[in-house]
Amino acid sequence: MSLIDVAILSIVQGVTEFLPISSSGHLVLTQTFLRLKEVPIIFDLVLHLGTACATVLVFYRLIGEILRDILLWLTGKGERKEISRKGTVRLAVYIVISTAVTGVLGLLFRDTIKEFFYRPLAVSLFLFLTGIVLFITRFVQDRGKQISEMGFHAPLIIGCAQTFAMLPGISRSGTTISAGLYLGMERSLSGSFSFLLSIPSILGASLVEFIQANGGMQSISGGQNPLLLTISGFSLSLLTGYGALRLLLSFLGRGKLYIFSYYCFTAAIAIGFLLLAYS
C-alpha cells in the first residue's frame, strides 16, 4: 500500500464511519477499485482507533458525566435517587446490554458475515437496504422519550440492529439511530446512544481481529515508513471522523436523517452497474 492508498482509505473510514452510509461497505468497494488485496487487520484497527477518538472528542462531557455518576452511585457518595433520575447510569447499563447482545450474536454469525466481505455486489444490495431504513425515518414522529422511559427491550433491539450492521453496506450508525427513533427515543438521545455504543463495540471487534491477526504495519508498508503510514491513517480518520460526526448530529437534530437515504440509493445503483460492467 502506498501513502495515497492509506490516505484514501483513512478518509473513507472517517467520513463513512459516522455518516449513515456504511463504512465497511465503502471500504470493501474502495479496496476493490484500488485493486488492493486483503488489508491487514492492524491497519483496520488503526483507522477504528482514530474514529473512536473522534467520538470521545465530541462526547467527552457526556462521557465524563456518565463516569462520574457511576462512581458516585457505586460509592454511595451521592443521592442515588437523584443520580438515577438523571438517567446517565441507566444509559451506561443499556450500552453494556446492547454491546453484549452484539458481541454474542456477532460471534455466532461471524463466519457468515465474513463471507459477504468478499462479495462486492452484495454491498450494493445492502447499501440499498440501508437507504430504505433511513428513508422510513422521514415518517417517524419524534416522541421525545428519554432514557428513563425506555424499557429493557430497547437496548436488546438496538444491539440486534448493530449486529445486522456488521454486514458490509449496512450502516451501523444508520441502523442503530433509526432503531432508536422507531422505538420513540428522542432524536439527540438516539444519536448519543448510537455513538457512545460505537466505542466499546468497534474497539471490542477490532481487538478480537487484532489478536487473531498475524501481520503488522510492515506487511502493508510497501517499502515506506510504517510509522508514517500509521500516523497518517490515524490522524486522517480522526479529523474526517470528527467533522462527519458533527455534520450528522446537525442533520439528526433537524430531523433530516432520511436525506442520506438518497445517497445510499444512488450509490447502490451506480456501484451495482459498475461492478457488473467490470466483472
Structural write-up:
By secondary structure, the chain is mainly α. It has one domain (3-278). It has helices at 3-18, 23-33, 41-75, 80-86, 88-108, 110-115, 120-136, 153-164, 172-182, 187-212, 226-253, 259-278. The chain starts with a helix and ends with a helix. The mean pLDDT is 87.
Index terms:
279 residues, globular, mainly alpha, 75% helix
List the helices and strands and how they pair.
Layout: H1 3-18, H2 23-33, H3 41-75, H4 80-86, H5 88-108, H6 110-115, H7 120-136, H8 153-164, H9 172-182, H10 187-212, H11 226-253, H12 259-278
Helix pairs in contact: 1-2, 1-3, 1-11, 2-7, 3-5, 3-10, 3-11, 5-8, 5-10, 7-12, 8-9, 9-10
Quick overview of this protein structure:
The chain is an all-alpha fold and 279 residues long. The chain has 12 helices and no strands.
In whole angstroms, how far apart are the ends?
23 Å
Helix content: over 70%
Fraction in beta strands = under 5%
Counting DSSP E segments of at least 2 residues, the number of strands comes to: 0
- Low-confidence sequence ranges: none
The mean pLDDT is: 87
Main sheet attributes: strand count, strand direction, barrel closure? none
| Net shape | globular
Going by helix content, strand content and strand pairing, the class is mainly alpha
- Rounded radius of gyration (Å): 19 Å
Total DSSP helices: 12
Order of helices and strands: HHHHHHHHHHHH
User: How many structural domains does the protein architecture include?
Assistant: 1
